[in-house]
Amino acid sequence: MERTQPEISIVIPVYNEEKHIADSLRQIEEELRSLVSSYEIIVIDDGSKDGTWEQLALTARRSGSFTALKLSRNFGKELALCAGLEHARGRAVVIMDSDLQHPPALLREMIRLWREDGKEIVECVKEDRGREPANKALGSAMFYSILNRLSGYDLQGASDFKLLDQRVVQAWREMPERNTFFRGMTAWLGFDRAQVSFEVPERAGGTSQWSFLSLLKLAVNAIVAFSTIPLRFVSLFGLIFFFGAVLLGIQTLYLKLTGSAVTGFTTVILLLLIVGSVIMISLGIIGEYIASIYNEVKGRPRYLVSRRLESQAAPAAAAD
Ligand code: UDP
Ligand code: MG
């Protein structure tokens, strides 16, 4: 027996948010109750190591329609989102963070744009990035402008706070790649879209889980997934250095013939260093793409669900 389809599914990835997750969920649910007749909340516990799962179990006891999935380890927010999108059944799905930095008050306008204006994607755009440290703001501005140049998608200010109609979710599910970049993929999909701008409030508690390295990894993955231009740079480097080599070759021959050949020790060392580093960088770029192909070809599941909680007396659903 299939349960009735809710109007809205809310998908929330969480990682180590035991302190405020219950309160955030309460606020989100309160807002939802005043907006739609039926909804489901799907929380993906991305392998939290603190008491987040216990908090989710408590929430399941009081909440109307609540599902929690626990991933077998920390797979990262992108894959936690995948898990949520694959399990959501609503006629529209809203993706939001668990720390109230995606204000539940915006749900009203998002749902209105979907219901009344027939928009298929409603994306919330960050007006300012909250009290974000300057280095992080600068880093993300740089990343988005590089990504824009390389891929043609302008994602400056984009957030993962989005509403997707079920048609969009269906199309999204048909994208087979393992290296997912939610913001970019929804931009690629097209569909009729609307934007709502918002100011990012302070975090509800705790600290952001993103380290510099995890952000760098996200940035490299996004660029590799959305552009092959860096591969062309490799050939360009090659060409530039070939011309350089020809010029230097001519100069060396000329000096040799005119008998004024000097022991160009410095030149040799410099050339070795420069050419060596260019080759290394080029190999690294190619390596990133090969790694990405390798990961896709392995065809492993994107994530593994180790536990599942359901607030409603659910029919004997097939276990994951
Ligand atoms: N998150 C996750 N897996 C991770 C890191 C973060 O599911 O490995 C969740 C986190 O619990 C939050 C959302 O992703 O709901 C956004 O994370 P965070 O607030 O740390 O990022 P920021 O707001 O700084 O972009
Ligand atoms: Mg946050």
TrEMBL record:
Keyword Transmembrane helix: yes
InterPro entries, sorted: Glyco_trans_2-like (IPR001173), Glycosyltransferase_2 (IPR050256)
Domain spans labelled Glycosyltransferase 2-like: 9-150
Transmembrane spans: 236-255, 267-291
Top-level taxon in the UniProt lineage: Bacteria
Enzyme Commission identifier(s): 2.4.-.-
Topology in the lipid bilayer: Multi-pass membrane protein
Entry-linked Pfam families: Glycos_transf_2
Broad EC category: transferase
Name the record gives this protein: Glycosyltransferase
Taxonomy of the source species: Bacteria, Bacillati, Bacillota, Bacilli, Bacillales
